[in-house]
Amino acid sequence: MHDTLPPDLSNDSIKRETSHLQHIVFQSTWDKILNLTFTASKYPGDQVRYVRLFTWAQILAIPTMSLAIYIFSLVFYRLYLSPIAAFPGRYYKRIAEMHEIYGPVVRVTPEEIHVMEPSAYQQLFVTGAVRKTEAYPRFSSGTGFEDMTAISTDHDAHRRLRQPLDKLFAKQSILRIEPRVAIRTEKLCARLESYRQSGEEVNLSNAFSSLTTDTISSIIFQEPSDYLSDPDFNHSWYETLKMGTLSVSLFKHMPWITRWIGRPILQFIVSRVTRWTIWDEKARREIMLSRKRPSDESKTREETTILDHLVHSSLVERDLGNGGFARLAQLIQQAGAHNVSHTLSTITMYLLHDESKLEPLRAELDGIWRLHGSNLSTPSWTDLEKMPYLSACVTEGLRIFTDVCGTRMAIGAMNRTPRVFPHDDVEVCGWTVPRGRELLIILI
């Protein structure tokens, strides 16, 4: 006998048959497991071809079932397993009606608790020595300043960053810049007097916005704006800003929009539409000039600005994110301009609609103006601060504005303020708010 194999059992033939068998086994196994359809060639040189992996029904069923399972699990967790599941509240009720039904503490969203009890103020708003309080990250969503607020979420970080800024808004600092406020207030009064004499209507919202923008920009920049001189108080500018403010709620509740569009692209669009690049470029230019001045000169100049203070303060610019001091200046400007102007508009509207509230204020103001008129001087902030009815109107205006407009138009502190207690359970009106939860505590 020869040691050689028959022609049909040569090495090449064995390889071909083995390969063919492997294809058949592979096809049979996966066809049963995944219901896949193959075409397996009888010849080893041909390629195995996948005809269909899944049907369209199967493709659509997988994400649909996954979404349904996720929603069911989320609802179950929020209703029964969440640390605040025991708090009452129904999402389709108005908040005031919810308080009438359930009491001063209600749950208004899966993560937010609403408190309507004045006595709770002392329990919740405390100093760091009593209880550390952290910021609520979602609170700043949609404002465009998420990068600035994210660095101060922690209690200690916020305190460290805020301390150099406290000097800017101390009473002595306010008294020093009072002449800048007075000049622009007198300019607004002159404009309103011209409207009164001509009988023309005036948009007080835009007028107050021009006043506050010009005032805060005079505190931040060496070259402030002059919107009070604009014939219509820069109406188009404020309409654009109003639309941007109204979009905050959209981006707050649907932050995925900014991720989908891309934050750099979105910031580019917003800056072009709202002309914020004007202020950004001005801030960067003045920061460079301030750095060239000695520290002592910047502090003793009569027209010292916030940018001067920031540049020569203990703050480290890189700690403020990519925007640095210029970005922080924009944040201060928005807070100082729009919150104050909307509060003034709210107070004016309520007083004009209620003559019984307006008359006592007029009488009090007439009295102090007659007193100073005889001395050929105007009342100072210190004088006005002593007037009880005027102070009450301002305080009530802040309360009403926060309640009525807080969730719609306000930015920053004028919005309903969240509180997160990372280390302590807090007793509120007989309820225990668990520690470490990102909860929104709202006071009316």
TrEMBL record:
Record-level Gene Ontology MF annotations: heme binding; iron ion binding; monooxygenase activity; oxidoreductase activity, acting on paired donors, with incorporation or reduction of molecular oxygen
Domain of life from the UniProt record? Eukaryota
TM region positions: 53-77
Checking Pfam families in the record gives: p450
- List the lineage, top down: Eukaryota, Fungi, Dikarya, Ascomycota, Pezizomycotina
UniProt keyword annotations, A-Z: Membrane, Transmembrane, Transmembrane helix
> What protein does this entry describe?
Cytochrome P450
Q: Which family does it belong to?
A: Belongs to the cytochrome P450 family.
